[in-house]
Amino acid sequence: MTSFPQFPRQGEVYLSKALRQSGDTKKRPVVVVSIDLRNQYSSTVLVVPFSSDIASASSNPCRPLVRKGEGGLEADSIAMCDLITTIAKRYLEPSPYGIISQDSLSKIQTAIKIAVGLF
Questions:
Q1: Is residue 94 included in any domain, yes or no?
Q2: Dihedral Cα 56, 95, 32, 60, nearest 10 deg
Q3: What average pLDDT does this structure show over 4-15?
Q4: What's the CATH code of the domain at 73?
Q5: Does the pTM exceed 0.85?
Q6: How far apart are the C-alpha atoms of 110 and 113, rounded to whole Å?
Q7: Domain residue limits at 32
Q8: Euclidean distance between CA atoms 58 and 64, whole angstroms
């Protein structure tokens, strides 16, 4: 039986080291949004960071809400799709917290499209 190496999968939530390019100074949960085929062969992944400051997202179409518990999130959080970024896999904690629902992933993908003008 052949075993395949593990790699981050689309929709999985990880704790990431500080995303300095977006001004972060602390670890933050992120969701992997790049497709699995890319994730398998690349040393990097595309991620969207989360924030529990949901008040800052009121009516921002680029920041959909993801409920507490989904993907292992400890609080209701917003996916900051306007801050999509590429990070090296080594900056992710070794194991995912969990995986978000297909519905939440679809909302995040739509918000990314809005953020980059593909709507």
A1: yes
A2: -10
A3: 88
A4: 2.30.30.110
A5: yes
A6: 5
A7: 12-115
A8: 9
